[in-house]
Amino acid sequence: MKRLQGQIPPMVTPFDRDGNICEASVATLVQFLNTKVQGLFVCGSYGCGPLMNVEERKSLVEMVSKHISPDLQFVVHVGTTNVRDSIELAKHAQDNGVHGVASVVPFYFHHDQESIKRFFERLVGAVDIQYTSTIIRS
User: Structural domains in the chain?
Assistant: First the structure.
């Protein structure tokens, strides 16, 4: 199994005035970042993934996959309010050549430890991505 490493910042998602993803700006941003970092983290943090619907998130992944350098690591946040959508996003990300997916537990409702464990078991079991990462907490 390969390890993710280096600088993999969350990429902002550029939107137009109407609230749609701006594909031209995505292309420009990805092409700029291709020479500055070792990877991109799409739909997480500043990328506004949880604020977009499933189709918008898929569209963004497709846009980035067209412009990202083959030398860069590509990680996509797939966290949603339910396991079904997270798995759909993870499978789509895998089909678009990502090196890893990241997720939070389904949000909004409180989940016990066992349901959190089942969520991640189902998510991890749904894809075959060969990269790992270590989470460092301070």
Answer: 2-132 (3.20.20.70)
